[in-house]
Specification:
Blueprint: H1 18-25, E1 30-35, E2 40-43, H2 45-51, H3 55-59, H4 63-66, H5 69-78, E3 83-91, E4 97-106, E5 115-122, H6 124-136, H7 138-147, E6 151-156, E7 161-164, H8 166-171, H9 176-179, H10 184-187, H11 195-206, E8 210-216, E9 221-230, E10 233-240, H12 242-262, H13 268-282, E11 287-294, E12 297-302, H14 308-314, E13 317-318, H15 322-330, E14 334-336, H16 349-354, E15 359-366, E16 372-380, H17 388-416, H18 418-427, E17 431-436, E18 441-444, H19 446-452, H20 456-459, H21 471-487, E19 497-503, E20 509-521, E21 524-533, H22 535-559, E22 561-566, E23 571-574, H23 576-582, H24 593-597, H25 602-616, E24 621-629, E25 635-646, E26 652-661, H26 663-721, H27 728-756, E27 764-768, H28 769-779, H29 781-787, E28 790-793, E29 798-802, H30 803-819, E30 828-835, E31 839-846, H31 878-888, E32 893-898, E33 902-910
Parallel strand pairs: 28-30
Antiparallel strand pairs: 1-2, 1-5, 3-4, 4-5, 6-7, 6-10, 8-9, 9-10, 11-12, 11-16, 12-13, 14-15, 15-16, 17-18, 17-21, 19-20, 20-21, 22-23, 22-26, 24-25, 25-26, 27-29, 30-31, 31-33, 32-33
Helix pairs in contact: 6-7, 12-13, 12-17, 13-17, 17-18, 26-27, 28-30, 30-31
Length: 917
């Protein structure tokens, strides 16, 4: 095994080398030796202590692990210089970040690779002292702070802002003036009680430096704080580390998933669930699931974050339907900002609203043959647009998922037979190369022949490093292979997707996507590499980005007029759209502020001129409803936006802005206001009419009852007084008349009750449905005892609702279940419930006479009776009242039934009237 430190027997780039020792002697700081690709080949004890590693551990790490990404970019630009010094941030083994000053020397190139000596100085204390000096020298200090890349704030001992630099105000989405003198906890009350709240108090009270990280949920960002005390208060350097945290979390998730998958026999579903849970920890608002394709339909594979009812509802959707189906059909990403309105998902709008899902993204999962295995689905409960950081995370998660599934396919194929493995390898669209633990090629599929130019018979048994690895990649290959064989631990090159370069038979280097997986099969061990030539993809991405930029520019020009005032030369520029909006001739009218101001409506002109003068002073303005009178006399409404631009020295050089014609929007707004006023007027008239109708119904019902009571009373007296002389027919006539009056009274009372539905002042309260059913049983106790009936229920919920209407609905439905029974049948009524995200659903089932399906709607109609009064009593209003009550609370009621079997009445009530305790 070859090592980058042993290119030959007589030389090694280590600290024992005379020239390097002189470099170390000249510095008493932490010293690192590194080669161009980032590998740390040596270092001193100061460096090991500073970064928290053992010296041997330090030698096996890389610059990319010890320093932030911006350092690496600067290093690549400046490494051609003999000596260079920068300030950056370094990362200790425990993850702590600290500011540092880094200088390096390019050493004499006596080895196969360039060698650099890096000196590192921890400048944390220096930053603290500079902050103290800044507070004590206000004019000079503020200039320094404004040049600091981090946000900076100072607070007095009462936690009031005494200073905020520009970056600090931008981070808080505020202006500097809006914060100065304000109390921090009053301006940001959501921080009170958090770890950063106690960190500020600790620094203030104990007079100690505090370094901590804080997740600020309203902005969905991670912040790093360095808080320093002083006699007058505290100061803090604040840095947005959201992207750093996200990238680190994604890398850790990728490593953990692959290590867990490689070193365990855990079912694939558990691996996929770990992936989704890890992704949601990084982006808490994502609701992720994975669906698999079977027989041109999609079925839920793993979905730990979505309701099971939703998963069941979408199981079996055809490929081509919905966002996931379209992604599976087109093999492309699908982004839906609004599920309800987007044509792709319109058929699932009602389902999405039921579960409060607003946006969804779908990624196709393709195998090595570009066949669709399934889709990666992401949902949001708010209307959401794709953010670059989120798309980056999902892209990487999709690659992890694809790699796992492809590897799973490959492993399954290998277990079946060598012939099957060979067929799969040969059919792959990616190049697949396998090597043994000595680095020699054991498999080289046709796609590898196509990409690299060698036939399989030419390369079998040859070291892979001699075939496709560029010179600058070979040392890393040997080091990683040796470390894996010694420790059996995955190196940074295994189980992850990398973009590197390879060379073909002609020695031409080109970009590839590379994934290397260690495979253990029976008693053998080998490495399998999946390689894709991404030359065309890289070029396409570059062209796509260029086209996207041009498209954005074209859209801005097409939609808005652009104007500009050169403050140096006092020259004006108007785009063609400005002239068109103003109705001016570009040849006849010269662009000027006075020319434009003359077109502004006289009542708006003074305000416009004042705002223009303010913009010249650096105060941006945006006025949405200036009126403009074109040259042809046409009145237009316009939107004007302006801002001042300064050069690097802060000198104003131009005033620029946009002009947009919003006449149609303004007219629509005015029309809507007029329509709204008219609707309010009609609503008031309707409310008055309803009140009069309600009063009429109440008075009429009471007035009708009085004659009925008189008729009943006189008929009873006649029967009592003349009973001896009345024959059977006469007594029967009196009975019919009294019974008719009683039924008329019941109808009047039911009509009065029906008219009052929805007007009850019954307060919302906590209701134990089990206790409410006990009251219903008590009300029907006589009927239950007479018929030996059974009313049962099971663990009903506790909800918030209006008790009286709910009691009325249950009383009617339970009463009907007891009443509508066959002679000799023992009534049985059972009450059940189910719960969805938005509603409670109750079901009242009986074993009665049942209802013909053709009458399902009719039973809820006023006065509609399916039986004559000799069979079953009633007015035909009970179910109509139930329907009106349920629908007045935005619920639904319906019936399932079969004649002779029984009926089940269902009704729902929304949860916003009743939350579970």
């Amino acid at each position: 095994m070859r090592s980058p430190l042993n290119k030959s027997d007589h030389s090694s780039p280590s600290l024992s080398n005379e020239g390097i020792c002189r470099s170390i002697v000249e510095r008493s700081n932490a010293i690192l030796l590194t080669i161009a690709n980032g590998t740390i080949v040596d270092g001193n004890e100061n460096a090991a202590a500073m970064f928290g590693y053992a010296l041997e551990e330090l030698k096996s790490s890389t610059r990319q692990i010890l320093f932030e990404e911006n350092f690496e970019r600067v290093f690549q630009r400046a490494k051609c210089e003999e000596k260079y010094v920068i300030e950056s941030y370094a990362i200790r083994k425990n993850g702590d970040r600290f500011p540092c000053e880094v200088s390096w020397l390019t050493l004499e190139n006596v080895y196969a690779e360039d060698l650099f000596s890096i000196s590192v100085v921890d400048i944390s204390k220096r930053q603290m002292l500079e902050a103290e000096k800044i507070r004590n020298a206000e004019d000079r200090g503020r200039g320094l702070i404004e040049r600091v890349s981090d946000s900076f704030v100072s607070l007095d001992r009462n936690f009031r802002f005494t200073y905020v630099n520009k970056r600090g105000a931008e981070l808080a989405n505020r202006t500097v003036d809006s914060l100065l003198g304000k109390h921090m906890w009053e301006e940001f009350p959501d921080i009170v009680g958090s770890n950063i709240y106690f960190a500020y108090h600790k620094a203030m009270i104990e007079q100690v430096d505090v370094h901590t990280e804080f997740y600020y949920e309203p902005f969905n960002i991670w912040l790093e704080y360095h808080i320093y005390p002083s006699p007058d208060g505290v100061s803090a350097f604040i840095r947005n580390i959201t992207e750093t945290k996200r990238r680190k979390s994604i890398s850790e998730l990728e490593k953990n998933i692959f290590e867990f998958y490689t070193n365990s026999e855990t079912p694939i579903e558990e691996i996929l669930t770990l992936l989704l849970n890890g992704l949601q920890r990084i982006h808490p608002h994502m609701l992720c699931s994975i669906l698999k394709v079977k027989n041109d339909k999609l079925f839920t594979w793993v979905s730990p974050h979505l309701p099971s009812e939703f998963n069941q509802a979408i199981d079996g959707i055809p490929v081509g339907s919905g966002s996931c189906g379209v992604a599976a059909q087109t093999k492309r990403k699908v982004f839906v900002k609004d599920i309800v309105s987007d044509p792709i998902t319109k058929d699932y709008g009602t389902l999405a609203e039921q579960f409060q899902l607003k946006s969804c993204w779908s990624y196709p999962i393709l195998d090595i043959k570009q066949n669709v295995l399934g889709t990666f689905a992401i949902y949001y409960t708010t209307t959401h647009e794709v953010k670059p950081s989120e798309e980056d995370s999902i892209d990487k998660a999709s690659i992890i998922l694809k790699t796992i599934l492809i590897n799973k396919q490959a492993q399954d194929a290998v277990k079946k037979s060598e012939q099957t493995r060979r067929l799969i390898m040969n059919a792959a669209l990616d190049a697949i190369i396998c090597i043994d633990t000595a680095g020699q090629v054991t498999l080289w599929n046709p796609q590898a022949e196509k990409i690299f130019g060698w036939k399989e018979e030419e390369v079998l048994g040859i070291e892979i490093s001699d075939l496709i690895l560029p010179e600058n990649f070979r040392d890393r290959h040997f080091a990683g292979l040796g470390n894996y064989l010694r420790t059996a631990q995955s190196s940074s090159m295994l189980n992850k997707v990398m973009e590197v370069t390879a060379k073909n038979r002609q020695g031409i280097e080109f970009p590839i996507s590379l994934t290397i997986l260690p495979v253990k099969q029976d008693n053998s061990e080998f490495f399998c590499a999946f390689i894709e030539d991404i030359s065309e993809k890289k070029e396409a991405q570059s062209q796509l980005q260029k086209a996207h930029t041009q498209l954005l520019s074209a859209q801005q020009i097409a939609k808005l007029g652009y104007w500009e005032l050169d403050l140096i030369g006092n020259a004006n520029y108007w785009s063609t759209q400005i002239y068109e909006i103003c109705g001016l001739d570009k040849k006849a009218n010269v662009a000027s502020i006075q020319e434009f101001a003359d077109l502004i409506h006289p009542d708006d002109r003074q305000e416009f001129l004042e705002n223009h003068r303010a913009a010249l002073q650096g105060i941006p303005f945006l006025k949405p409803d200036y009126r403009l009178i074109r040259k042809d006399g046409d009145l237009r409404y316009i939107l004007i936006e302006a801002s001042r631009v300064c050069d690097d020295k802060g000198t104003p050089i131009r005033l620029q802005g946009t002009l947009q014609d919003i006449t149609r929007l303004k007219k629509n707004e005015l029309a809507l206001i007029e329509l709204n006023n008219e609707l309010n007027k009609r609503a008031m008239e309707l409310a008055k009419s309803n009140a009069e109708l309600e009063q009429f119904a109440y008075i009429t019902s009471h007035d009708l009852q009085e004659p009925l009571r008189m008729v009943t009373s006189f008929l009873t007296q006649i029967e009592k007084k003349y009973n001896d002389i009345l024959d059977e027919k006469g007594r029967q006539y009196i009975h019919f008349a009294v019974d008719g009056a009683a039924r008329m009274k019941r109808i009047i009372l039911d009509l009065l009750e029906y008219s009052r539905v929805g007007k009850s002042d019954s307060a919302v309260q906590k209701i134990d449905m089990n206790e409410l059913l006990k009251e219903i049983v008590q009300l029907n106790q006589t009927t239950i005892e007479e018929k030996n009936a059974e009313v049962i229920w099971h663990d009903l919920p506790v909800i918030q609702f209006s008790k009286t209407p709910l009691q009325q609905v249950l009383h009617n439905l339970v009463g009907n279940g007891l009443k509508y029974q066959r002679p000799g049948q023992r009534p049985r009524v059972e009450i059940r419930f189910t719960e969805t995200l938005s509603h409670w659903q109750f079901s009242i089932a009986d074993n009665g006479i049942g209802i013909d399906p053709k009458n399902f709607d009719a039973v809820f109609v006023l006065f509609k009776r399916l039986h004559n009064r000799d069979e079953f009593s009633g007015t035909g209003l009970g179910l109509a009242i139930c329907k009106k009550i349920v629908e007045s609370y935005q619920g639904k009621i319906w019936v399932d039934s079969s004649p002779g079997v029984g009926s089940t009445f269902h009704f729902t009530i929304p949860k916003h009237f009743g939350n579970l305790y």
